[in-house]
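INTERNAL AUDIT FORM
Audit reference: QA-55
Scope: verify that the stored structure record matches its stored sequence.
Auditor: D.O.
Record contents follow.
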Amino acid sequence: MSYPPVNSKKDFVKRYKNGEFGNASPTWNDLKSFLDEGRDKDLTGLYHLRNRVKGGPTWYNVSGGSVRDKWAEVHSLGQVTEGNLYVSEMCPTHKTQLVGEVTDTPDGLTLYASTLPRTMREALASSSFTVRGLPAVGYLRMYLNANSYEWMHELLDRYPGHVIEFTALSRCWGTLPGFNTVFWEVRNY
C-alpha cells in the first residue's frame, strides 16, 4: 500500500513530527514548544536548528541554553524566514556507522552513503560512495539493526520513487525503542 507522496519540505516536516516515518530525533515545531518543555534548561544536551526550506541552512550542536539566542540570531540576520525553523535533538553523530540516502529503482536499491561519524551533510561532502543492488543490501544489512532494516523497506514500499535519508548508529537512539537508525527525510521533491 502506498501513502500520499511527500511533495515539499514543509509537508515532510509536518508528517515527520507526527511520527509517520518511524524513528526520528525528538523534535519541536517551534521555539515556543521547545521552551514550554523546558529544554532550554538542559545544560548537557545538544540541539539542531533545522530548516523547512529544501537545502536551507541548518545549525548543529547548539546547547539547550543557547537555542533561544541562536534562534533570535538567525532570524535577525535574515538567514531564515518566520515559520521555517524548527528544533531537533542533536543525533549522537560520533556513534554513526552509516549515513546516507537509499532509493528503490528498477535495478534494485541504490545507496549513496558514508561511514564517517559526522552529520549527513558533512559526511557525504567529505567521503561518500554509491553502490547498487546486492552491495547496497549488504551495507544496509551490516549497519541497520533488524527493526531499522525492516522499517526502511516498509518506507520504500509506502513511498515508491522517494529517497529515504537515514543515519545508522552503533546503538539504539531516537523516538522509538529498538531502532539504531534515525530516518531524517522521505522526499519526492
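Auditor finding: record pair retrieved intact. The chain has a mean pLDDT of 95.
Action required: none
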